[in-house]
Amino acid sequence: MSEPAEAPSAQAMGRRWLRSRELALNVVAVCGGIALWGGVVALGKVGLPGPAQVLMRAIELIRSGQLLTDLLASLGRVTAGFALGVALAIPVGFLMGWYSTARGLIEPFVQFFRMIPPLAVIPLAIVTMGIGEAPKVFVIFLAAFLSCVIATFQGVVSVDKTLINAARVLGAGDGTIFRRVVIPASTPFILVGMRIGLGSAWATVVAAELIAAQSGLGFRMQQAELYYDLATIFVSLIAIGALGLTMDRLLLALETRLTQWQERM
Amino acid sequence: MSRGISFQNVSRRFAHRGGTFLALDRFSVDVAEGEFVTLVGPSGCGKSTALNIAAGLIEPTGGAMIVDGRSVRGPGPERGVIFQQYALFPWLTVRQNVEFGLRIAGKSASQRRAIAQRFIDLVGLADFADSLPKVLSGGMKQRCAIARAYAVDPTILLMDEPFGALDALTRVQMQDQLLDTWSRERRTVMFVTHDVDEAVYLANRVIVMAARPGRLYEIIPVDLPYPRSEAMRLSSAFAEIRNRVWRAVYHQPARFLDGAAQDNEREMR
After folding, report:
1. What is the mean predicted confidence (pLDDT) over A215-227?
2. What are the start-end ranges of the H helices in B162-209?
3. Which of A47, A118, B156, B235 could form a disulfide with A143 if both were Cys (CB 3.0 to 4.6 A apart)?
4. How many domains does chain A have?
5. In terms of domains, do A71 and A42 share one?
């Protein structure tokens, strides 16, 4: 338990110093990694493109607009599938946590489909939905939905019973308890679920594009493979990582903002 | 029976490992309007069960639970409850916590604001009205919970070991503040504690309970005037009552303990 108002300045200053030190270490590590990569390639023992070559290709791809087109194609699929998945997962998760009947009816399906990697559904999705955008978006939707629904359900189930009782003794009915206690109390769980969901959505889109697509970062790598164009593969991989990381950080920022009220160690 | 709390042969049985377990056995106590009673007893004596039945959070399996002349059906805002774990909504500020029940009661924004401010001032949290619970100390959290319970204007306050998690010094301060608040905003109070000193210092009457099965053991009146003070806490009259309660809690006759335990084992089977 933190004592109020006392000595926050010194503590905050210490924390700020620790953070800038950490950031400096991160930068050193990244530069070191790139240098190591360049060094290994320069030795000529491995047939990989070096950092300079990859950078040149990246500039080329950015200039021609190819990278942006691919990026937007992948991002569009992820956004659509992820939004649909989360939009369904939150109400279904609440339903499962709140009504034991709903839980009994839905849980076996969720638990079963969770065990099937979304990618394994691609052949079926292509056969039934054709080769357009639908099967890819569907598979991403499935990935996002399954990770997020479990987290939401867990969040509702683990709402502190004392808080519910506190609301009841203040005269709250079920509707009020749901809106004003259960939803805010499970928000941290939902946001963690969304982050996991986004991670698996992103992993799924790239894999789906490798298998069946005419655009996107996965498709570009697939094409580059045919021409032994390693530099393009590197650029795509770096773009995938950077974009995934950016989206994750954005969700993390949202999470920190929405769950400021939580007591942290 | 008009206002106040009336336990009439209230029993409560819980399911336990395939059998049942009698947590409260034909408990009968009347608490008059405006009275401050404390419930003490060894662990497992059913004191919290009794309080939760009065709150409407647990249903009795036998007897009648009457509050203000009516049979209790579920919780209601006329019975304020203060929990040991504070139970503040961590995502709401002190003010929003205090306004929570007022909003349910359908008060307008300006009314809510005025009432909340009055009780926040009463418990001395004005400087922290817009802070989140996470920055408050344990004592401040409990004061916020008390303000929240008071705000909806309950006729009865049910307090379940509210100061149990506080350090000894804060605890004594909280007791004085509670009595101070109570003397200005008189309510019927039922206060559960395991601290004999606290039980005597606060109460008009101390209700001592026995365990296995939980039941009434003895009611000890505290013939000390309010307002209570430190001098009174250290007086010989206080010590005498305290000793009496202590003996009632810690030296219940063996027959009372063993016989009951055997009865209960038979039931557990």
Report:
1. 91
2. 168-184, 196-202
3. A118
4. 2
5. no
Mutate to test the interface with A, among B67, B107, B134 (most CBs of A within 10 A): B134
Report strand pairing: B188-192 vs B156-160. Answer: parallel
Of A5, A170, A263, the CB nearest to B152: A170
Tell me how close the Cα of B76 comes to any Cα of chain A, in angstroms.
5
Tell whether A12 and A25 lie within a shared domain.
yes
- Specify the DSSP element, H or E, that contains B54: helix B47-55
A214 and A251 inside one domain? yes
Could you say which of A3, A168, A261 has the minimum Cβ distance to residue B90?
Answer: A261
Q: Is the pLDDT of residue A5 over 50?
A: no
Please give the model's pTM, rounded to 2 decimal places.
0.80
B94 by Cβ neighbours in 10 Å (0-12 / 13-18 / 19+) ranks as buried
CB pairs under 8 A between A and B: 75
Please check whether residue B206 is in contact with residue B17, taking contact to mean a CB–CB distance below 8 angstroms: no
Q: Is A3 a residue whose pLDDT tops 90?
A: no
Pair A222, A248 in one domain:
yes
Dihedral sign for Cα B71, B73, B74, B75, please.
negative
CATH of the domain at A193: 1.10.3720.10
ipTM of the complex: 0.86
CB contacts of B72 in chain A (<8 Å) are: none
User: Residue A7's domain spans which residues?
Assistant: 1-48
CB contact, 8 Å: A21 with chain B?
A: no
pLDDT digits (tens, 9 = 90+) for A231-244: 999 999 999 999 99
Three-state SS sequence of chain A = CCCCCCCHHHHHHHHHHHHHHHHHHHHHHHHHHHHHHHHHHHCCCCCCCCHHHHHHHHHHHHHHCHHHHHHHHHHHHHHHHHHHHHHHHHHHHHHHHHCHHHHHHHHHHHHHHHCCCHHHHHHHHHHHHCCCCHHHHHHHHHHHHHHHHHHHHHHHHCCCHHHHHHHHHCCCCHHHHHHHHHHHHHHHHHHHHHHHHHHHHHHHHHHHHHHCCCCCHHHHHHHHHHCCCHHHHHHHHHHHHHHHHHHHHHHHHHHHHHCCCCCCC
Is A78 domain-assigned?
A: yes
Q: Does A143 fall in a domain? A: yes
Q: Is B79 on the interface with A (CB under 8 A)?
A: yes
What does the longest C-alpha to C-alpha distance in chain B come to? 60
Instruction: State which residue of chain B sits closest to A8, comparing Cα positions.
Output: B135
Query: Could you tell me which chain B residue has the CA closest to the CA of A168?
Result: B75
Residue A264 covered by a domain: no
In chain B, which residue's Cα lies nearest the Cα of A183?
Answer: B91
Q: Is residue A265 part of a domain?
A: no
Residues of B in contact with A184 (CB under 8 A): 89, 91
In whole angstroms, give the CA distance from residue B250 to residue B206. Answer: 14
Separation CA B189–CA B79 (nearest Å): 10
Residue A232 near residue A57 (C-beta atoms within 8 A): yes
